[in-house]
């Protein structure tokens, strides 16, 4: 396949570039040096006006100060980055760091600082007693002003966006975008008829050569490859699964010829950890991690967990409003089934969202009340086909409350639904309270032993 030529290699390279904090600043460094040469060339054309001319001593002093200032500011931003890493891994979630590395503003600030440094340093060598780069010195001052403005924006941004609620909003929006885009792509590739997959004949099993977490599938590439061999590819593992070397990843059913296993593997990107590109459940995983970290005895901050639950509920309303069969059949342009992808169903998403928060926060009145309000809201908003899983989680929540709160009075408080955890009950416009004392457990799904 050659080095760095397959789709999987290109995907991993894109992930590296997105997460890298040095590539964009390096471009800024090179661009600053090039712009210095341009400024020197333009300066010989008797511009800028005479009011902007500098003596050699002044120009040298200004440029020297700018070089030192940019080095100091770079160190300051790096220090902030270290503090962000410490906070994110200590009080939020290490998984969030994969998203923080991609922040474009941070890379723009670093690139501006390195570019200004290279620009000023390159101009220093051209200063002579009879030759001063007046235009370059003026532009260097303007670059410092831009750098300071970007630094203030950067400080303002991260002062506000590092709060757990801001991170929850960012992550939930990203997850919602990935989910809706993926759902639209699946609808657009629906097969003709029922999309029957051949079940007879020999099955070719394609195994992975290297191990790692499944980060993404090249869906158009897999469909085109299956159409070329007139077969159907059945993917056996979910995006986000970790697969050891030798795992059966694709089953080939039917076909007029045998596809090349190496080529099929090149359409699957494996890496060290999950990414959010095609994995909306990864966003939900981050939200849950932040919530249960807040519920740990070392932090003991259920209010933060309640705030994160607000965005988990938002995400669940988006997911629950979409039909999730758990298995998706995609077709080529002629409408013939070519690719079968496993997917998460509604039960999987809901269990991921509720299970650990209920287990770690079962002794918190806030969490129990907020979870009940969330589950009741899902029952009210989602279609009946989704209700069974919600009732199951509500029954498990009721059982957890009964185990943790043995005193009837405290249990009665914990059983009330409250969108604010504590203090959110209020009279409605009709004079009827939104919560009515102890809420009885929601009806368990048919056949569930209560």
From TrEMBL:
Q: Does the keyword Transmembrane apply?
A: yes
> InterPro entries per the record?
DUF2254_membrane
At the top level, the lineage of the source is Bacteria
Listed A to Z, the keywords are: Membrane, Transmembrane, Transmembrane helix
Membrane-spanning intervals of the chain: 21-42, 62-85, 105-124, 136-155
Is the keyword Hydrolase in the record?
no
One matching Pfam family: DUF2254
Residues of the region (Disordered) are 411-450
Protein name as catalogued: DUF2254 domain-containing protein
List the source organism: Streptomyces zaomyceticus
Q: Give the lineage.
A: Bacteria, Bacillati, Actinomycetota, Actinomycetes, Kitasatosporales
